[in-house]
Design a protein that fits this description.
about 400 residues, alpha/beta, Urease, subunit C, domain 1, TIM Barrel, 2 domains, 9-stranded parallel β-sheet, 8-stranded mixed β-sheet, 8 helices, about 25% helix
Protein backbone atom coordinates (compact mmCIF):
# COMPACT_ATOMS: atom_id res chain seq x y z
CA UNK A 1 0.00 0.00 0.00
CA UNK A 2 1.31 3.45 -0.92
CA UNK A 3 2.43 6.06 1.56
CA UNK A 4 0.04 8.98 1.11
CA UNK A 5 0.61 12.59 2.12
CA UNK A 6 -2.26 15.02 2.48
CA UNK A 7 -0.96 18.54 2.93
CA UNK A 8 -2.10 22.12 3.62
CA UNK A 9 -5.46 21.06 5.05
CA UNK A 10 -7.51 22.09 8.05
CA UNK A 11 -7.92 18.90 10.08
CA UNK A 12 -10.70 18.20 12.59
CA UNK A 13 -8.97 16.43 15.48
CA UNK A 14 -10.48 15.08 18.73
CA UNK A 15 -9.10 18.00 20.74
CA UNK A 16 -9.71 20.79 18.23
CA UNK A 17 -8.98 21.98 14.72
CA UNK A 18 -5.48 22.23 13.25
CA UNK A 19 -4.83 24.47 10.26
CA UNK A 20 -2.20 24.07 7.54
CA UNK A 21 -1.67 20.48 8.61
CA UNK A 22 -0.02 17.50 6.97
CA UNK A 23 -1.40 13.99 7.37
CA UNK A 24 0.81 11.03 6.54
CA UNK A 25 -0.92 7.70 5.91
CA UNK A 26 1.11 4.49 5.96
CA UNK A 27 -0.28 0.98 5.56
CA UNK A 28 -3.84 2.23 5.87
CA UNK A 29 -3.29 4.05 9.17
CA UNK A 30 -2.64 7.61 10.28
CA UNK A 31 1.14 7.64 10.82
CA UNK A 32 1.87 11.32 11.39
CA UNK A 33 -0.08 14.53 11.95
CA UNK A 34 2.01 17.68 11.78
CA UNK A 35 1.59 21.45 11.55
CA UNK A 36 5.29 21.93 10.97
CA UNK A 37 6.68 22.71 7.52
CA UNK A 38 8.66 19.53 6.99
CA UNK A 39 9.58 17.52 3.93
CA UNK A 40 7.68 14.26 4.24
CA UNK A 41 8.50 11.39 1.95
CA UNK A 42 5.46 9.90 0.27
CA UNK A 43 4.69 8.02 -2.91
CA UNK A 44 1.59 10.12 -3.49
CA UNK A 45 0.72 13.64 -2.42
CA UNK A 46 -2.59 15.50 -2.41
CA UNK A 47 -2.82 19.24 -1.82
CA UNK A 48 -5.95 20.04 0.20
CA UNK A 49 -5.64 23.80 0.53
CA UNK A 50 -9.02 25.33 1.45
CA UNK A 51 -10.39 21.94 2.55
CA UNK A 52 -11.43 20.63 5.94
CA UNK A 53 -10.64 17.02 6.71
CA UNK A 54 -13.18 15.15 8.85
CA UNK A 55 -12.94 11.60 10.12
CA UNK A 56 -14.91 9.43 7.68
CA UNK A 57 -18.62 9.28 8.38
CA UNK A 58 -20.04 6.06 9.87
CA UNK A 59 -23.69 5.29 9.03
CA UNK A 60 -25.15 2.65 11.34
CA UNK A 61 -28.70 2.82 9.92
CA UNK A 62 -29.00 2.62 6.14
CA UNK A 63 -31.61 0.73 4.08
CA UNK A 64 -30.04 1.47 0.71
CA UNK A 65 -29.56 4.11 -1.99
CA UNK A 66 -29.28 4.68 -5.77
CA UNK A 67 -32.15 2.27 -6.45
CA UNK A 68 -30.79 -0.53 -4.24
CA UNK A 69 -32.94 -1.85 -1.38
CA UNK A 70 -30.88 -3.76 1.17
CA UNK A 71 -33.71 -6.29 1.66
CA UNK A 72 -33.39 -7.47 -1.94
CA UNK A 73 -29.78 -6.59 -2.74
CA UNK A 74 -27.07 -8.75 -4.27
CA UNK A 75 -23.43 -8.41 -3.29
CA UNK A 76 -22.83 -6.25 -6.37
CA UNK A 77 -25.81 -4.08 -5.41
CA UNK A 78 -24.38 -3.52 -1.94
CA UNK A 79 -21.02 -2.56 -3.40
CA UNK A 80 -22.83 -0.09 -5.66
CA UNK A 81 -24.29 1.53 -2.54
CA UNK A 82 -20.85 1.54 -0.92
CA UNK A 83 -19.38 3.33 -3.93
CA UNK A 84 -22.15 5.94 -3.85
CA UNK A 85 -21.78 6.49 -0.11
CA UNK A 86 -18.07 7.11 -0.54
CA UNK A 87 -18.89 10.07 -2.81
CA UNK A 88 -20.77 11.51 0.19
CA UNK A 89 -17.98 11.06 2.72
CA UNK A 90 -19.21 7.80 4.24
CA UNK A 91 -16.37 5.40 4.93
CA UNK A 92 -18.25 2.67 6.85
CA UNK A 93 -21.89 1.60 7.07
CA UNK A 94 -24.29 -1.04 8.37
CA UNK A 95 -26.83 -2.42 5.86
CA UNK A 96 -30.18 -2.29 7.64
CA UNK A 97 -33.02 -4.76 7.12
CA UNK A 98 -36.71 -4.18 7.64
CA UNK A 99 -38.85 -7.14 8.84
CA UNK A 100 -39.08 -9.79 6.14
CA UNK A 101 -39.48 -13.51 5.54
CA UNK A 102 -36.77 -15.78 6.94
CA UNK A 103 -35.91 -17.02 3.42
CA UNK A 104 -35.18 -13.48 2.31
CA UNK A 105 -33.02 -12.90 5.37
CA UNK A 106 -30.89 -15.89 4.41
CA UNK A 107 -30.36 -14.49 0.92
CA UNK A 108 -29.37 -11.01 2.04
CA UNK A 109 -27.06 -12.31 4.77
CA UNK A 110 -25.23 -14.35 2.12
CA UNK A 111 -25.08 -11.24 -0.07
CA UNK A 112 -23.63 -9.11 2.75
CA UNK A 113 -20.99 -11.76 3.49
CA UNK A 114 -20.11 -11.90 -0.20
CA UNK A 115 -19.96 -8.12 -0.48
CA UNK A 116 -17.57 -7.89 2.48
CA UNK A 117 -15.24 -10.40 0.78
CA UNK A 118 -15.51 -8.46 -2.51
CA UNK A 119 -14.47 -5.27 -0.76
CA UNK A 120 -11.25 -6.81 0.53
CA UNK A 121 -9.78 -7.02 -2.96
CA UNK A 122 -11.98 -4.70 -5.03
CA UNK A 123 -12.08 -0.98 -5.56
CA UNK A 124 -12.16 0.95 -2.27
CA UNK A 125 -15.63 1.97 -1.10
CA UNK A 126 -17.49 2.59 2.14
CA UNK A 127 -16.75 -0.48 4.27
CA UNK A 128 -19.62 -2.80 5.20
CA UNK A 129 -19.29 -3.55 8.91
CA UNK A 130 -22.17 -5.93 9.66
CA UNK A 131 -25.96 -6.01 9.68
CA UNK A 132 -28.76 -4.18 11.47
CA UNK A 133 -32.14 -5.91 11.86
CA UNK A 134 -34.65 -3.16 12.47
CA UNK A 135 -37.93 -4.04 14.08
CA UNK A 136 -38.48 -7.79 13.83
CA UNK A 137 -39.33 -7.59 17.58
CA UNK A 138 -41.28 -4.33 17.45
CA UNK A 139 -44.55 -2.93 18.79
CA UNK A 140 -47.26 -3.09 16.11
CA UNK A 141 -48.66 0.21 17.38
CA UNK A 142 -45.35 1.86 16.57
CA UNK A 143 -44.56 0.14 13.28
CA UNK A 144 -43.96 3.33 11.26
CA UNK A 145 -43.06 2.18 7.74
CA UNK A 146 -42.18 -1.34 8.90
CA UNK A 147 -44.33 -4.35 7.98
CA UNK A 148 -46.08 -5.69 11.10
CA UNK A 149 -47.04 -8.97 9.41
CA UNK A 150 -43.42 -10.04 9.99
CA UNK A 151 -43.20 -8.97 13.64
CA UNK A 152 -42.42 -11.57 16.29
CA UNK A 153 -42.47 -12.02 20.06
CA UNK A 154 -39.98 -13.93 22.20
CA UNK A 155 -41.18 -17.15 23.78
CA UNK A 156 -38.78 -20.12 23.77
CA UNK A 157 -35.58 -18.57 22.45
CA UNK A 158 -35.72 -20.02 18.97
CA UNK A 159 -36.81 -16.69 17.53
CA UNK A 160 -33.31 -15.22 17.73
CA UNK A 161 -32.16 -17.84 15.24
CA UNK A 162 -34.65 -16.35 12.79
CA UNK A 163 -32.27 -13.40 12.47
CA UNK A 164 -29.42 -15.19 10.65
CA UNK A 165 -25.91 -14.12 11.58
CA UNK A 166 -23.12 -13.19 9.21
CA UNK A 167 -20.30 -15.68 8.75
CA UNK A 168 -17.69 -12.92 8.37
CA UNK A 169 -15.37 -12.84 11.41
CA UNK A 170 -15.90 -9.82 13.68
CA UNK A 171 -19.02 -8.72 11.79
CA UNK A 172 -21.24 -6.44 13.85
CA UNK A 173 -24.78 -7.57 14.68
CA UNK A 174 -27.23 -4.86 15.74
CA UNK A 175 -30.98 -5.08 16.23
CA UNK A 176 -33.76 -2.64 17.10
CA UNK A 177 -36.54 -3.95 19.34
CA UNK A 178 -39.41 -2.93 21.59
CA UNK A 179 -38.70 -4.24 25.12
CA UNK A 180 -42.40 -4.29 26.06
CA UNK A 181 -43.29 -7.10 23.66
CA UNK A 182 -43.95 -10.55 25.11
CA UNK A 183 -40.65 -11.84 26.51
CA UNK A 184 -38.90 -8.57 25.66
CA UNK A 185 -36.57 -8.33 28.64
CA UNK A 186 -35.52 -11.97 28.34
CA UNK A 187 -34.94 -11.31 24.65
CA UNK A 188 -32.53 -8.47 25.47
CA UNK A 189 -30.63 -10.76 27.84
CA UNK A 190 -30.40 -13.53 25.24
CA UNK A 191 -29.21 -11.17 22.52
CA UNK A 192 -26.50 -9.76 24.78
CA UNK A 193 -25.32 -13.30 25.51
CA UNK A 194 -24.95 -13.78 21.77
CA UNK A 195 -22.98 -10.53 21.39
CA UNK A 196 -25.68 -8.46 19.71
CA UNK A 197 -25.86 -4.69 20.13
CA UNK A 198 -29.39 -4.05 21.37
CA UNK A 199 -31.16 -0.81 20.47
CA UNK A 200 -34.59 0.30 21.64
CA UNK A 201 -37.02 1.54 18.99
CA UNK A 202 -40.49 1.24 17.46
CA UNK A 203 -41.74 1.16 21.03
CA UNK A 204 -44.25 2.41 23.59
CA UNK A 205 -42.37 1.00 26.58
CA UNK A 206 -42.98 2.62 29.96
CA UNK A 207 -40.25 3.87 32.28
CA UNK A 208 -40.03 0.68 34.33
CA UNK A 209 -39.70 -1.52 31.24
CA UNK A 210 -37.05 0.77 29.77
CA UNK A 211 -35.03 0.59 32.97
CA UNK A 212 -35.27 -3.20 32.93
CA UNK A 213 -34.16 -3.27 29.29
CA UNK A 214 -31.17 -1.09 30.12
CA UNK A 215 -30.22 -3.35 33.04
CA UNK A 216 -30.53 -6.36 30.72
CA UNK A 217 -28.09 -4.87 28.21
CA UNK A 218 -29.89 -2.47 25.86
CA UNK A 219 -27.46 0.39 25.19
CA UNK A 220 -28.83 2.49 22.34
CA UNK A 221 -32.01 4.13 21.01
CA UNK A 222 -32.99 4.01 17.33
CA UNK A 223 -33.99 7.24 15.53
CA UNK A 224 -34.73 9.35 18.61
CA UNK A 225 -38.25 10.86 18.68
CA UNK A 226 -39.45 8.76 15.74
CA UNK A 227 -41.64 5.65 16.23
CA UNK A 228 -41.66 6.07 20.01
CA UNK A 229 -43.60 7.93 22.69
CA UNK A 230 -42.56 11.54 23.15
CA UNK A 231 -41.93 13.72 26.19
CA UNK A 232 -44.84 14.68 28.48
CA UNK A 233 -44.61 16.50 31.78
CA UNK A 234 -46.38 13.65 33.62
CA UNK A 235 -45.04 10.80 31.49
CA UNK A 236 -41.40 10.95 30.49
CA UNK A 237 -41.96 8.70 27.46
CA UNK A 238 -39.32 6.76 25.57
CA UNK A 239 -37.78 9.93 24.13
CA UNK A 240 -37.61 11.59 27.54
CA UNK A 241 -36.04 8.51 29.09
CA UNK A 242 -33.44 8.34 26.31
CA UNK A 243 -32.54 12.01 26.75
CA UNK A 244 -32.12 11.74 30.52
CA UNK A 245 -30.38 8.34 30.71
CA UNK A 246 -26.76 9.42 30.34
CA UNK A 247 -25.53 5.87 29.72
CA UNK A 248 -27.78 5.45 26.68
CA UNK A 249 -26.60 6.60 23.26
CA UNK A 250 -29.10 7.81 20.67
CA UNK A 251 -29.16 8.09 16.92
CA UNK A 252 -31.03 10.87 15.16
CA UNK A 253 -32.16 11.63 11.59
CA UNK A 254 -31.12 15.19 10.81
CA UNK A 255 -33.06 15.68 7.59
CA UNK A 256 -35.38 18.49 8.68
CA UNK A 257 -38.34 16.19 7.97
CA UNK A 258 -38.31 13.53 10.67
CA UNK A 259 -37.48 16.08 13.37
CA UNK A 260 -37.88 19.85 13.55
CA UNK A 261 -34.60 21.79 13.63
CA UNK A 262 -35.30 23.12 17.13
CA UNK A 263 -35.72 19.56 18.41
CA UNK A 264 -32.44 18.57 16.78
CA UNK A 265 -30.74 21.30 18.79
CA UNK A 266 -32.63 20.19 21.91
CA UNK A 267 -31.36 16.63 21.51
CA UNK A 268 -27.81 17.84 20.90
CA UNK A 269 -27.81 20.01 24.02
CA UNK A 270 -29.12 17.15 26.16
CA UNK A 271 -27.14 14.17 24.87
CA UNK A 272 -23.97 15.99 23.78
CA UNK A 273 -22.04 15.03 20.67
CA UNK A 274 -20.37 11.88 21.99
CA UNK A 275 -23.72 10.21 22.70
CA UNK A 276 -25.74 11.44 19.72
CA UNK A 277 -25.02 9.64 16.45
CA UNK A 278 -26.20 11.03 13.14
CA UNK A 279 -27.77 8.44 10.84
CA UNK A 280 -29.26 8.65 7.37
CA UNK A 281 -32.03 6.00 7.62
CA UNK A 282 -31.81 6.26 3.85
CA UNK A 283 -33.90 4.10 1.54
CA UNK A 284 -33.42 2.86 -2.02
CA UNK A 285 -34.55 6.04 -3.84
CA UNK A 286 -31.81 8.12 -2.17
CA UNK A 287 -29.83 9.85 -4.87
CA UNK A 288 -32.59 9.46 -7.49
CA UNK A 289 -34.59 12.63 -6.85
CA UNK A 290 -38.35 13.05 -6.44
CA UNK A 291 -40.89 10.60 -7.86
CA UNK A 292 -42.88 7.46 -7.13
CA UNK A 293 -41.06 4.26 -6.24
CA UNK A 294 -41.85 0.70 -5.17
CA UNK A 295 -40.40 -0.13 -1.77
CA UNK A 296 -41.18 -2.98 0.64
CA UNK A 297 -44.12 -4.09 -1.52
CA UNK A 298 -45.85 -0.72 -1.56
CA UNK A 299 -45.59 2.57 -3.37
CA UNK A 300 -43.75 5.45 -1.75
CA UNK A 301 -43.76 9.00 -3.03
CA UNK A 302 -40.92 11.44 -2.67
CA UNK A 303 -41.81 15.11 -2.93
CA UNK A 304 -39.27 17.81 -2.11
CA UNK A 305 -37.08 15.22 -0.42
CA UNK A 306 -39.80 13.88 1.89
CA UNK A 307 -40.87 10.23 1.75
CA UNK A 308 -44.40 8.96 2.32
CA UNK A 309 -45.88 5.50 1.92
CA UNK A 310 -49.45 4.55 1.03
CA UNK A 311 -50.38 4.45 4.72
CA UNK A 312 -49.32 8.07 5.14
CA UNK A 313 -46.19 7.30 7.16
CA UNK A 314 -42.71 8.66 6.56
CA UNK A 315 -40.81 5.80 4.90
CA UNK A 316 -37.20 6.43 5.83
CA UNK A 317 -35.21 9.32 4.39
CA UNK A 318 -33.46 10.21 1.16
CA UNK A 319 -30.51 11.96 2.76
CA UNK A 320 -26.91 10.88 3.21
CA UNK A 321 -24.70 11.39 6.24
CA UNK A 322 -23.21 14.39 4.44
CA UNK A 323 -26.67 15.99 4.33
CA UNK A 324 -27.08 15.35 8.06
CA UNK A 325 -23.70 16.96 8.71
CA UNK A 326 -24.73 20.05 6.74
CA UNK A 327 -28.03 20.26 8.63
CA UNK A 328 -26.38 20.17 12.05
CA UNK A 329 -23.74 22.67 10.92
CA UNK A 330 -26.49 25.04 9.77
CA UNK A 331 -27.92 24.95 13.30
CA UNK A 332 -24.74 26.39 14.75
CA UNK A 333 -23.23 23.15 16.06
CA UNK A 334 -19.44 23.39 16.13
CA UNK A 335 -17.46 21.64 13.42
CA UNK A 336 -15.74 19.48 16.04
CA UNK A 337 -19.07 18.32 17.52
CA UNK A 338 -20.62 17.67 14.11
CA UNK A 339 -17.61 15.51 13.31
CA UNK A 340 -18.08 13.55 16.55
CA UNK A 341 -21.76 13.00 15.80
CA UNK A 342 -21.05 11.73 12.29
CA UNK A 343 -18.01 9.59 13.08
CA UNK A 344 -16.96 8.95 16.66
CA UNK A 345 -20.42 8.65 18.22
CA UNK A 346 -21.61 5.95 15.78
CA UNK A 347 -18.25 4.17 16.12
CA UNK A 348 -18.77 4.08 19.88
CA UNK A 349 -22.27 2.63 19.44
CA UNK A 350 -20.75 -0.16 17.36
CA UNK A 351 -17.85 -0.72 19.75
CA UNK A 352 -15.18 0.07 17.14
CA UNK A 353 -14.05 3.51 18.30
CA UNK A 354 -10.51 2.26 19.08
CA UNK A 355 -9.96 1.96 15.33
CA UNK A 356 -12.65 4.14 13.73
CA UNK A 357 -14.25 7.52 14.18
CA UNK A 358 -11.46 10.07 14.67
CA UNK A 359 -8.19 11.22 13.19
CA UNK A 360 -5.62 9.83 15.60
CA UNK A 361 -2.18 8.33 14.96
CA UNK A 362 -2.49 4.55 14.78
CA UNK A 363 -6.17 4.56 13.86
CA UNK A 364 -7.55 3.42 10.54
CA UNK A 365 -7.16 6.12 7.88
CA UNK A 366 -10.78 6.87 7.03
CA UNK A 367 -11.49 10.49 6.16
CA UNK A 368 -13.38 12.94 4.00
CA UNK A 369 -12.15 16.30 2.70
CA UNK A 370 -14.77 19.01 2.14
CA UNK A 371 -13.97 22.26 0.37
CA UNK A 372 -15.02 25.78 1.35
CA UNK A 373 -18.05 25.57 -0.97
CA UNK A 374 -19.33 22.50 0.88
CA UNK A 375 -18.41 19.87 -1.71
CA UNK A 376 -16.83 16.49 -0.99
CA UNK A 377 -13.45 16.54 -2.71
CA UNK A 378 -11.78 13.39 -1.40
CA UNK A 379 -12.79 10.27 0.52
CA UNK A 380 -10.23 7.82 1.82
CA UNK A 381 -11.17 4.38 3.15
CA UNK A 382 -8.53 2.38 4.96
CA UNK A 383 -5.78 4.51 3.46
CA UNK A 384 -7.02 4.11 -0.12
CA UNK A 385 -8.68 6.79 -2.23
CA UNK A 386 -12.31 5.75 -2.70
CA UNK A 387 -13.49 8.99 -4.29
CA UNK A 388 -11.81 12.10 -5.61
CA UNK A 389 -13.01 15.27 -7.29
CA UNK A 390 -9.67 17.07 -7.21
Amino acid sequence: MKTLLLKNATVILPDGTAENTALVIVNGQFAEISTENRNFRAEEEVNLTNCKIYAGFVDLHNHGAVGVDVNSATAKDLHKVSRFLATKGVTAWIPTLVPDAFENYLKIIDAIDEAIVMQESGKPAAKILGVHYEGIFANKKMCGALRPEFFKTFTNGDEVAEMPRLKTPNAIHLTTLAPEIEGGIELVKELKKQNWIVSIGHTKADFTTLEKAFAAGASHVTHLFNAMTGVHHRDIGVAGWALTRDEISCEIIADGVHIAPTMLKFAYKNKQADNLALVSDSVAPTGLGDGDFKLWNEKISIVDGKTQNERGSIAGSVITMFDAVKTMSSLGVTTEDVSRMASLAPAKVLGIDKSYGSIVIGKRADLVAIDEKGHVKLTIVGGRIAFTDM
